[in-house]
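Lecture 7 notes: from sequence to structure.

We start with a single chain of 229 residues. Read the sequence below before looking at the structure.
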Amino acid sequence: MSEVQCLLQNLGDDRPSALLVRLLYGTGLRLMEGLRLRVQDFDLERKQLSVRHGKGGKDRVTVLPQSLLLPLRQHLDERRQLFDRDVLSGVGSVYLPGALARKYPNAAREWIWQYVFVAAGLSADPESGEIRRHHLDESVIQKLIRRAAQKAGITRPVSPHVLRHSFATHLLESGYDIRTVQELLGHSDVSTTMIYTHVLNRSGRGVISPLDRVWRQGRRGSGQQLLAF
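Now the structure, written as tokens:
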């Protein structure tokens, strides 16, 4: 069994956090990009995910794993129920950057702008003092991945960014070209993408997320993919 499979299978029962970890590997997102995802960023019909204001302030679109579509639908349904309860309690507002808040003054209370992966409790906005439900804290995901790695018997240090490395490496090993991977990762310079692997100059269209390959291999009982460090 591959290290990727072992890690993912040892995430435990914390469904929202475990789902986000799988999403990080399946999409190549950075940790903070995943934590800051909002409802409108998901297009389940087209199987794509929009990353807005990523590193360097750039937007991009990446692949959404087929194997996560049903869990994501279920999570979004539960998230909507929580949002509706927050609205009834008078705390249904979400943080928006200053420019967006000024341009769309009512957007903070709309469903499509809500964070998808949120904290269990409410907290006060440090600037306005308004009580809100913020996104998950990054330490929650970091600790979950470390625990899963220990349970899986992985002796090397494992961080959320390792999943991004593995996403890029496994796509290239599957035959996708370096430019495609560059776009999915949001790198402005292809030389940055090349750091992830020496496997270059391959072609491929209709990208299949490496998470779906792991999922299929798990069902067949085969596969040798390793975490890329």
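Confidence is low (pLDDT under 50) at residues 196-205. Keep this in mind for problem set 3.
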